[in-house]
Each structure stands twice: as structure tokens, then as C-alpha cells.
Amino acid sequence: MNVKQKTIKNEVSVKGVGLHTGANVTLTFCPAPENHGFKFQRIDLPGAPIVDADCDNVTDTARGTTISQNGASVSTVEHVMASLVGMDLDNVLMKVDGPETPIMDGSAILFLDALEAAGIQQQEVDREYFQIPHNITYTEPDRKVEIVAMPLDDYRFTCMIDYNSPVLGSQHAGISSIAEFKKEIASCRTFCFLHELEYQLQNNLIKGGDLNNAIVIVDKEVTKEELDHLATIFNRKAMEVAPQGILNNMELRYQNEPARHKLLDMIGDLALVGIHLKGHIMAARPGHAANVAFAKKIKAAIKKEKNKKVQHVYDPSVKPLYDVVQIMDILPHRQPFLFIDKILELSKTHVVGVKNVTMNEEFFKGHFPGAPVFPGVIQIEAMAQTGGILVLSTVPDPRNYLTLFLKIDNVRFRAQVSPGDTIVFRCDLMEPIRRGIAQMKGVGMVGGKVVVEAEMMAQIIKVKDSEPTT
């Protein structure tokens, strides 16, 4: 049975201060449509720009994870992202009126409580998973970081931290399923060492820092004068070092709460892959930078697997969905610049077209006439026309529209195409069409062998208002 995508039923807001700016901030979780994913919106900026929660948009990992896009940034997103994954959601828009999310109590539990209060709404479209196909590893030898994702039909985590500290020591944490997130991980708070806290205070780096939202590990000898100074800064009557080696501002919720919080951070950072994962993630000494680098490695594996999936062998001799006459009812191109002969498949997200390469093409008269080769630029044009069929299928009167290509990236020509070959093009939407902009991944195959591939961006524009033909 396929799992359906989920969003929340109602808007819900949380308020707090930003850890680094100290500014009051409101974060509002909003329902979002199918295939929307997780996005932040900076409603305090002109135009209310959107920032996709994507590992490719990460711009800083120094003291949390910051994502940036469209001239806007949102900092400390990891706890929010972990709460979304822990609630098993797919599509949520998060409106924020400042440059970072509120730190709340330093964990994800208050975000998760708010999402539960908003209610869960099942949607109609099936959820897509990426099941780890083989071991994917990431290492940083100088920092002794090791992360591996292994195949598993669930989402399981194991985390080990070791700060070479006599107080904290080595700790382990794990969950056997993401369903355990709320009970075992969500309430675990961020932590820092006393020497880090002093440095950050001296450099004004945690304007919103408070002893209510972080565990402070005392990793050095500390005098009563220093404790009194901290008490004054944080408006406390007195500060002491608790038996566990932490400041007595709070009690640990778990003996291994720091390790559990590192696991929480890892879940939030890996949510920036942009798709639900199935696999067992094991990490030693992870941090935000390593988590994001590992997320990018998983995203690259997803892209590679998707490329394999589209290399289906099509039979170009089957009865087409559209023949060349029907294609001319959709595309404005005409001979000698119409390069698609058939459309075999068409859905809301993909299209398959056929180009028969024959020796009587006009360009063969001057393009290597002694050793004819189908020009690469025309292969891309044929791919683009195939994608144009997909884009124009989204409007009721395609004769009144044009598709103008804005960008072509990552073009690869992998094999020569010669007269007598038949190229089958498949174009898949990389994300839903928005505001008339379509992004597609195109692959051209001859006999099941990939000969060309590219990523294309096109815009659909209306050029006339003629009546449809009958």
C-alpha cells in the first residue's frame, strides 16, 4: 500500500527569540499543496522571498544550519526541520518574520507540539521515498568524522559523540525507527561547553542565548567569581556546577542528552535532502558541516538513481500517442525545424518522444558530409521540443502559447548519433511547474544507450488569443 503525502490542517504559530540575533521572532507553520515540500518564507522582507529547505541552499554551518535563496536567509533551521520529519510530514510552508527561527527551549519538542495541535491532513498524491541502495559513506579524517548510510526498509539512526572531554566523555544514542523521534529525541536540548559559552558571550554571538535553552558543560576549572559573573549575565541568583559536570541551570532529561541532541540535529540536516529516506544512518562525531556534506552526497546518489530509472528501453515502432501531424497542432515548429516525429508517452510529469535520424536531413549537406554526425545542438533542440509538448499540455489552448528556453545546464554528449539511428527522448519535470517556469531533466537514448542528457529550464508565455479549432 502506497503512503500518501501529508500536510497540516491549520496554520499554527510559535514565538520566541533567535539564538544569535536575540530578536523576537514568530514562526508560522502553514498547510501546503502536494509536491510542495518544505519551504521558508521571509515575510519581513520586500516581496516575501521563498527559501527552499534544500542542502544545496546551505550557506553557513558555523553555529547551526543557515539556508539562503532569492536574496534571503534563514538560520538555525535544523530543529524545525527535525520536527517536520518527526511528524512524518511532506508539505509545509513556514513563514518567519526574522532572519532565524526561534530557539525555544533548545530542542524540537515545542515545534512538534505545535504541529500536533495543527492536525495532520492526508493528501492525494503518493509519497516518494529514496531507499538507500548501497552503503554511502562520508569521512573527515582530521576531525575523525565518519557517517555511513546503509540499506534498510525503515529510517534508523545511530549516533556517537566523543569530545575528548573528561566531563562529557563518549556517548551513544539511537532510534530503531523515526516513529520513536517524539518520545526519544524531540525534547533533547542543544549543549555547549563553558569555554565556548564564554567566547560567544565575549563576541556577542548569542544575543538570544539563555540558560533555559542550552545545557552548559563545565569542561574546565571554574572559580566562584566566574560563576557569580555568569549568574549576573543571565539574571540568576546563583550558579553552581552540578554533579553531572553541567551548570545547575537545568537537569538533564536523559543521561545521554547531548548525544541524543546530536542525533536530532542530524535528522534535521538530512531533511534538507528533500525526500523521505529509508536506510540506517550511523554517525561518529557528526556536526552541521558534515551532516550537510553527507546530505549532498545522498542527493547526488538520488540523482544518479533517477538517471538509471529513465533509461527504460522504448519501442519506437509502437502506435504513437501523437503522430507528426498531431504534434504540429501543439508545437509551432515546422520543417525543416521540426525535430520530433512521434510522442509515445505523456503524463503530468514526463513525456517520451521519438526522432528518426535520416540522411535526407538538410543539415547533413554541410555537417561532416563525408562522415555524417547528427549535430549535438539539434539533439538538444529535439529534446527541448519533446519537453515543449509536456509543458504545453498544461494549457487548454497550446496554439496560443510558446515555450521559451531560459537555461540549459549539465549537457553531456555520450555517444555519436548517425543517420539511420532513432533517438528516444524522455523529459521529466524536476519539480512542479510554477508561474509558467518548468525545469526538466532530459535524456536521449539510441537502443537503450544514453547518447545525450541535459537539464533545461523553460518559460511558457501566451502570444495570441485565437479560438481553438474544431
TrEMBL record:
CDD domains: FabZ. Zn(2+) binds at residues 79, 261, 265. Pfam families: FabA, LpxC. The keyword Transport does not apply. Its EC number is 4.2.1.59, 3.5.1.108. Transmembrane segments: none annotated. NCBIfam families: lpxC (TIGR00325), PRK00006.1 (NF000582), PRK13188.1 (NF009667). This is Multifunctional fusion protein. It comes from Pedobacter ginsengisoli. The lineage of its organism: Bacteria, Pseudomonadati, Bacteroidota, Sphingobacteriia, Sphingobacteriales. The gene is lpxC.
